[in-house]
Design a protein that fits this description.
Elements lengths: L2 H10 L3 E5 L9 H11 L6 E4 L4 H10 L7 E4 L2 E4 L1 H10 L2 H14 L1
Parallel strand pairs: 1-2
Antiparallel strand pairs: 1-3, 3-4
Keywords: 2Fe-2S, Iron, Iron-sulfur, Metal-binding, Redox-active center
Protein name: Glutaredoxin
GO molecular function, one term: metal ion binding
Length: about 110
């Protein structure tokens, strides 16, 4: 399986997937920390991938969805965006509902 197939399998494996530097418990950069905290604040479960654990994923993920930076957040296999997008969604009050909808759709599939 090549790296793009591995990434596709990862984004397909959970309703919400956060690609980040580090882990939610031990983030390795401020943007990843903010993204993980923002997602966690909703109380909705999400998966994460520590890009430092797989250099191929780290190098190829920007090309996967044409998004150059980390973190990257996927819901139902589609790129939502980076940390700034989900912070904005949280401020507008739409993040939790979007995450709950993604989880419901994923469970029904």
């Amino acid at each position: 399986m090549d790296v793009m197939e591995r990434i596709q399998k990862q984004v397909d494996s959970a309703a919400i997937v956060l690609y980040m530097k580090g882990t939610p418990q031990f983030p390795q950069c401020g943007f990843s920390s903010t993204a993980a905290q923002t997602l966690a604040s909703t109380g909705v479960e999400f998966a994460y991938v520590n890009i430092f654990d797989d250099q191929e994923v780290m190098q190829n993920l920007p090309a996967f969805a044409d998004w150059p930076t980390f973190p990257q957040i996927y819901m139902n296999s589609e790129l939502v965006g980076g940390g700034d997008i989900i912070v904005e969604m949280a401020e507008m009050g739409t993040l939790k509902a979007a995450m709950e909808e993604a989880t419901t759709k994923f469970s029904a599939a």
